[in-house]
Amino acid sequence: MKKQQLYKGSLNTIIMKLLEQHGKMYGYEITQKVKEITQGEMNITEGALYPALHKMEADGFLDVEMDRVDGRIRKYYKLTESGVKETVSRMEELENFVRNMQNIVNPNLKLGY
Amino acid sequence: MEKRLTNQQIDQLFTFTKKHYVEHYDVQVELVDHLANAIENQLKENPNVLFEEALQTEFKKFGIFGFTGLVEQKQVELHKHYNKMIVNELLKFISIPKVVVTIILYLALFFLLKRTGKLGEIISLAILLLSFIYFMVDGFRFVSKIKKQQKIQGRSWLIQSVAQSVFSLPFIYLTGFGFSLISNFFREDRTSELSVLGLNVFIVFILIHVLTLYIFSAIIKPRFLQSIKETEKRFQFA
């Protein structure tokens, strides 16, 4: 369970990236998608997902849309214009982070690009 | 064949969220859909699992505070958003181009108060006091209008609760602050006019008061009304 800690700081970026790729998604779908991509390695808890989504909605990065699916009302999230811009800058940050971590963890490995 | 929850079970989920202190319909809807999906998924993996058990398993995933932490956090985020908006709008009055308005108002007040002396002070204090009352009554009317709306519709939206708290907290603060300032002015039996420093402090106070009043009624209130309308529109088909 400890490894979840490492993902924590990147939760918003992960959500934004998923929304960028898939257009609109609902909360449960996001948790399942992350599980699927990481083959169960990463598990976004409900207690973390919704606060993150609501914060980004309040910050104007996400827009919401309601839809009726199977007789139920579903709340979809999608990126706003400023959300798209934010995703780009956060992805850059994340990539830098990954690169730096790689250099620290494995300093002898020269990446071939 | 995937097993879907029945309408009755969905209703049960709505009751469940209400029982766990989620009073706003928009939040209830999102949580109900989430729980329903998660329970259906459990049923897919293990068709023998009981609905109640599955629900408890999913509820535990929301952590020890259950839904309340989630609702509060959402309110806090939105409140912060509106507070930021108020501060940003105020800051606009000390940056170009709106600073021109501020300077003109400042100079006008300065010369007016300087010229009229004690009488001007008293008149402006009276105007401040009246606007305080107007401020309060207007805020009260706004909040009760929202309450009435909720009663008619039989539902409440989270944004409405944020509007209510944004419109009641600063009023309490501002009026408290304002009254203490005004009573300070009257406490000492002043016969002389305000000193230059006192005059400037007084003008700054008037300006902040007037600008905040303007921002609340001309910017924040319409923004809230629009957000509430948008939320209603989103749910119209439901």
TrEMBL record, chain A:
Q: Which Gene3D superfamilies match?
A: Winged helix-like DNA-binding domain superfamily/Winged helix DNA-binding domain
Per UniProt, residues of the Transcription regulator PadR N-terminal domain are: 15-86
Q: Which SUPFAM superfamilies match?
A: Winged helix' DNA-binding domain (SSF46785)
**InterPro entries per record:** Metal_resp_DNA-bind_regulator (IPR052509), Tscrpt_reg_PadR_N (IPR005149), WH-like_DNA-bd_sf (IPR036388), WH_DNA-bd_sf (IPR036390)
The name of this protein is: Transcriptional regulator PadR-like family protein
Species this chain originates from: Paenimyroides ummariense
Lineage, top ranks: Bacteria, Pseudomonadati, Bacteroidota, Flavobacteriia, Flavobacteriales
Automatic annotation (TrEMBL), chain B:
Looking at the UniProt entry, the stretches that span the membrane are 90-113, 119-137, 157-182, 194-220
Q: Per UniProt, which keywords does this protein have?
A: Membrane, Transmembrane, Transmembrane helix
The protein here is known as: Uncharacterized protein
Keyword Membrane appears in the UniProt entry:
yes
